[in-house]
Amino acid sequence: MNYIGDIYTGASNGLREVWSNKLRSLLSMSGIILGVAALVAMVGIVQGMLNNMRASFERSGGVLKLEVHPSEAPESQQHIAGISPGMTWRDISAIRKAIPLADFVSPVVDMRWERFIANGRREGGLLQGVTPDYANIKKNELINGRFISDYDIEVKSPVIVIGPHIVKELYEGEPNVIGKQVRVKGQVYTIIGQIKPVGRARPGVRNKFNYEARFNYIPATTAMSRYKGNDEINHIEILASNRQTMPDLIEQIENTLIQTHRGILDFEVRTQEEQMAELEKLEKSFTYSLGGIAGISLLVGGIGIMNVMLASVSERIREIGVRKAIGARSYDIFIQFLAEAVVISILGGLLGLFLSIGLLSMARDLIPEGENISLIPISVMIYGFLFSSFIGLASGVYPALRASRLDPIDALRYD
Questions:
Q1: Are 51 and 277 in contact (CB under 8 A)?
Q2: 108: which strand partners?
Q3: Where are the domains of the chain?
Q4: β-strand 102-118 against 235-240: which pairing, if any?
Q5: 156 three-class SS
Q6: Predicted TM-score of the model (pTM)
Q7: What is the DSSP secondary structure assignment for residue 88, as one 8-state letter?
Q8: Run of H or E residues at 105
Q9: Which pLDDT does position 371 carry in this prediction?
């Protein structure tokens, strides 16, 4: 038997039948179109958002970053916890002197949310006091000026490195604001650095949800003298040399801080390994759940194809009878109807892929930092197309069997 020839003939007949009943075919493949488009678009958008999160994670130091935060002393030390000075500038000095495994060390003096005033405008932003090492930990790029220097730390300079959100809101997005002044909490600062915006700038679009863009930095010593009135810091950020030395680095940090805290364990060292694991877990969860939802819509589309094919069999009973009477085999009838179902699903899958590209293009323009969304997520498209083809094949089997098993005499008598 010439299977390839039979399949080709069946596919040709199926394609002609689809073309001769355009509206019915379009309606029958609508479920497949929407299912494939939903699958590719949803997974593509989620992958783009997760790429944004991953990029933000890397900019914040990635898995090499450690943070030391204050914590409550253990119950056995509660009665003597008051002898600890807490987290202070002395901790920074001790870590820098005693721990060579720490590439960069910076305190963070967190003033949290403050009101910034310039040019008669007001806007909220986040203000932190840091040291020069912070630029290597956070990996913020500057488009103008410089970051905080050792001299700024030494003399407690009234200078600020300003984020893109404040530039956009107070200076109307001027390309260079170096040398201008801004008032924060009654204090005047001179802008020495301008942080590069993350993502694609779009004219006329104001992204209120970009948390990273709201950070602004002043020298840690300036923050302590102007706002704290002492040498207390909120937490410490450290960048390790490599992942292999992380366990030794953590141990050295704990040993050093136990001494500066007079034996009180009122601190904790946090790594970003858990955050990385959570991000990967979130990625799998989103991909599987959204893929499952889209898969259900594809199954519904397959049911639609089956219903249309069953209706087509009922409409063409006499045609089937005539074909069998002049020598067509049951196998030929089966191949024709099965090929018709597959053709409908394949065309629906292809149209769904084109529709998904349009949806992803819209998402790139509408979603903040949407440039990380791929217009053509190849792997998802392949899976979506193969699944839609399989659905068409599966949904066409029963109608094709029903058509092939019709008795030619009963079919010719059918009215």
A1: no
A2: 235
A3: 3-57+278-413, 62-271
A4: antiparallel
A5: coil
A6: 0.71
A7: B
A8: strand 102-118
A9: 66
